[in-house]
Design goal:
Elements: E1 4-8, E2 13-18, E3 27-28, H1 30-45, E4 51-56, E5 64-65, H2 67-76, H3 81-101, E6 115-119, E7 123-124, H4 126-133, E8 136-140, E9 147-148, H5 162-170, H6 172-180, E10 184-185, H7 187-192, E11 198-200, H8 205-215, H9 240-257, H10 262-274, H11 279-295, H12 297-314, E12 329-333, H13 337-348, E13 352-356, H14 360-379, H15 385-393, E14 395-398, E15 409-412, H16 418-429, E16 437-440, H17 447-450, E17 460-465, E18 474-479, H18 485-497, E19 501-506, H19 513-530, H20 534-543, H21 550-557, H22 559-573, H23 580-591, E20 604-606, E21 612-615, H24 617-622, H25 632-652, H26 659-670, H27 679-686, H28 688-702, H29 710-718, H30 722-726
This protein binds nicotinamide-adenine-dinucleotide (NAD).
Nicotinamide-adenine-dinucleotide is lined by residues 333-339, 356-358, 362, 413-416, 420, 423-424, 441-443, 464-465, 467.
């Protein structure tokens, strides 16, 4: 198998073409790197070669490093992983540096061979780091192409010279969006930013690169940082302007990451320290920090959950083997907040939608919701007038169930009331084909109970969206007792069409996501009732990587919803109901009309425009803060274990059947500390033995809700990890 081919033209320009066999997008592997190295050696050694163009035979240049290679780097690095990783990264630096120096005399900087990169399309990660080592970067004028270094998004940073080269090329300030935020640009914007050198018509790409190679002079191929008197644009750290940049960047990184994402901090350190030393030493520093990040279990856990496993689930890792179930006509019942959102995402994905509500104006309001989202997109230049008309043209807003004729999927999102739901189920089933699948978007009612209203329970399923539908990427698919494989496949194919990420779970109270998130909120509220400072609760959550503290979260989702859920749960559980202390606080706030953000009053105080001012001062009066406060870690353990124990129980109970879904679902569904890779990954990082120890102590101090699950105890006694124990099960293989 070859990844790169080599050919020498009559004009003396060698063309190295990247074309990984069997893949639509080039990705770099270690073997590929070795091949590239060999071709560079050939070109530099052959006196007939005047210069080189590196390009791709595919429509894009490259998507980056093969993520599976990155995820395994630590394990593959040998008995001394730090040394193995560092040596591996230095090998890459060696190859790229060889390209950059291109055989020139290191003293006179003369005699090197010009090497240009010609990018037909997207160039990401190592797919841009390689061009950055070349002497000139040409990109085809392809507005769809994305150029950038997205490594930070997967919990690492550009470690093949991208960090050092981009910061030296643009200066720390201008490099920040590309390195720290992983900003991607089209070729023209990338040229304007100084990331690449030329944008040329696609058909001229190779010719222009060749011409440049043949006309380049010695001085054209010396990088600024290799020339005498190089100064970092915008100033190095000890320059007054540079000093300001680095101080500001450090504060910004800490503010954004709360110190829990190791990559951003390491990246900044690599840029800062690298700026103080010569280029080759800077590369070594970059390699050391990269090794540091790769050795942190957070990076591999994030890559595993957020990329490898997320993609596996999107590609149907748990899809039953039935024929394609692509949705052609969707019926949405209930045009409220959820129904309107579902209608929009489906129409946007090209599906014909009938949006039904009890009254025409309600149905119209639902369609207007889609119009609002599209209009916003138009303002930002992301949506054309044609596209808007096309998407809206796919939505029929009506009260007439007859319009559902021929629909192959229904998603019901009417009031959370079994009677109302039963009514619309019967009405829809009277019209739709016998093969159509009926899905409910209920968030609390058991699917198997709602299925009783259906004449075809095998075709009845839960498709649980999260709010706001257009932004939240997770969709929870719930199998009822009688749900058949075709319905599951239909739901999965629908989720694929609307480009979201599915998890498939079995039917139980609150399914998976809400089952874990409710104890998190409750634990936060419980602490307030105990006299723990509310600010400590909120900050502890943020500092462990939760996007919102539990009190802010309940304000956002609304306190009256919390009251409703508490009442329903109490009714279902009777004497076993454990959350009386929580309800006291929740009900008291609701009684005072403090319903959260929607009423501009909740655990937080808000200004007239809805801006959050800070924790409500009345809280301290009702629940005085104790003189002695718990340690930060104790609060964090309570907040995290409240969630992860529920995830483990969901696995024990068979609600979850695949830990990958548990991890991916947690991060996408409620933002569970993404740095950890999800609840199961976090427990693996912690180690089952230590987790049991903490659980036992929490149980002794705070009660039975922290009881160690038998599964975890068994794993601790056997020294097992979740990913060691579960991912190899044949039924769950991707
Ligand atoms: P909503 O009150 O905003 O919308 C419900 C809509 O259903 C209203 O427009 C109402 O007019 C319509 N409706 C009621 N009875 C009807 C009938 N007989 N025929 C046709 N239309 C009827 O509620 P929502 O927040 O959109 O929630 C809808 C469903 O989604 C509920 O089951 C809820 O539990 C679930 N859900 C809500 C959220 C959330 O965050 N709001 C998240 C996930 C799931």
């Amino acid at each position: 198998m070859t990844d790169f081919t080599y050919s020498l033209g009559d004009d003396g320009v060698a063309i190295i073409t990247w074309d990984v066999t069997g893949k639509s997008m080039n990705v770099m592997s270690l073997a590929g790197f070795a091949e590239l190295d060999g071709h560079i050696d050939t070109a530099l050694a052959d006196s007939a070669v005047k210069g080189v163009v590196i390009t791709s035979a595919k429509k894009d240049f490259a998507g980056g490093m093969d993520l599976n290679v990155i995820a395994r780097m630590r394990e593959d690095a040998g008995a001394e992983p730090a040394k193995g990783l560092f040596d591996g990264v230095m090998m890459m630096h060696g190859v790229l540096r060889k390209i950059e120096r291109a055989g020139m005399d290191p003293k006179t900087l003369k005699g090197g061979k010009p090497i240009a990169a010609a990018l037909p399309g997207t160039a990401l990660g190592i797919g841009l780091e390689l061009p950055l080592a070349c002497h000139r970067i040409f990109a085809a004028d392809n507005p769809k192409a994305k150029i950038g270094l997205p490594e930070i998004m997967i919990g690492i940073f550009p470690g093949a010279g991208g960090t050092t080269r981009v910061s030296r090329k643009l200066g720390a300030m201008a490099a920040a969006p590309f390195l720290l935020e992983g900003k991607l640009s089209d070729p023209k914007s990338a040229k304007n930013a100084g990331l690449i050198d030329e944008v040329v018509p696609a058909e001229d790409l190779l010719t222009r690169a060749r011409e440049w190679v043949l006309s380049a002079k010695d001085a054209d191929i010396v990088k600024p940082w290799d020339a005498k008197g190089y100064k970092m644009p915008g100033g190095a750290p000890y320059h007054p302007a540079g000093f300001m940049t680095f101080v500001g960047a450090s504060a910004m990184v800490n503010g954004k990451t709360q110190g829990v994402f190791p990559a951003a901090k390491a990246l900044l350190a690599a840029v800062y320290e690298g700026a103080l030393v010569p280029f080759d030493t800077a590369l070594k520093i970059e390699a050391r920090w990269f090794t540091n990040v790769m050795l942190n279990p957070s990076s591999t856990a994030m890559i595993r959950s957020l990329f490898i496993n997320k993609e596996a689930l999107e590609k149907g890792a748990n899809r039953p083997g039935v024929p394609d179930q692509t949705v052609k006509k969707l019926g949405v019942l209930g045009a409220g907040m959820m129904g309107a959102g579902i209608a929009y995402v489906a129409a946007n994905a090209g599906i014909e939608v009938v949006l039904i509500d009890a009254a025409q104006d309600a149905a119209d309001r639902g369609k207007a919701h889609a119009e609002g989202i599209l209009a916003k997109g138009m303002k930002r230049g992301k949506v054309s007038a044609d596209k808007m008309a096309e998407v809206l043209g796919r939505i029929t807003a009506t009260t007439d169930y007859a319009a559902l004729d021929g629909a192959d999927l229904i998603v019901e999102a009417v009031f959370e009331d079994p009677k109302v739901k039963a009514g619309v189920t019967a009405q829809a089933e009277a019209v739709i084909p016998a093969t159509a699948v009926f899905a409910t978007n209920t968030s609390t009612l058991p699917i198997s109970d709602l299925a009783k209203a259906s004449a075809r329970p095998a075709n009845f399923i839960g498709i649980h969206f999260f709010s706001p539908v257009d932004k939240m990427m997770l969709v929870e698919i719930i199998r009822g007792k009688e749900t058949g494989d075709v319905a599951v496949a239909k739901a999965l194919d629908f989720v694929r069409q609307i480009r979201k990420t599915p998890i498939v779970v079995n039917d139980a109270r609150f399914f998976y996501a809400n089952r874990c998130i409710i104890p998190y909120i409750n634990e936060g509220i419980r602490m307030v009732a105990e006299g723990v400072a509310p600010a400590l609760v909120e900050n502890a959550a943020r500092l462990v990587g939760m996007p919102l503290g539990p009190l802010q979260l309940v304000d956002e989702t609304s306190i009256d919803l919390g009251v409703k859920i508490a009442k329903a749960t109490r009714a279902a559980m009777g004497d076993a109901y454990p959350d009386g202390a929580v309800d006291e606080v929740l009900f008291a706030l609701a009684d005072q009309g403090r319903l959260g953000r929607k009423s501009n009053a909740g655990f937080y105080a808000y200004d007239d425009k809805g801006g959050r001012l800070g924790l409500w001062s009345g809280l301290a009066e009702a629940y005085p803060v104790s003189d002695t406060q718990p340690e930060l870690t104790e609060v964090q353990h309570r907040l995290l274990f409240a969630q992860v124990l529920e995830a483990v129980r969901a696995l024990e109970d068979g609600v979850l059947t695949d830990i990958r879904e548990g991890d991916v679902g947690a991060i996408l569904g409620w933002g569970f500390a993404p740095w950890s890779g999800g609840p199961f990954s976090w427990l693996d990082i912690l180690g089952a033995e230590r987790a049991v120890e903490i659980c036992d102590r929490l149980t002794a101090t705070y009660g039975a809700r922290f009881t160690t699950p038998a599964l975890l105890r068994e794993m601790a006694s056997k020294g097992e990890t979740f990913y060691g124990r579960f991912t190899t099960a044949p039924a769950k293989a991707a």
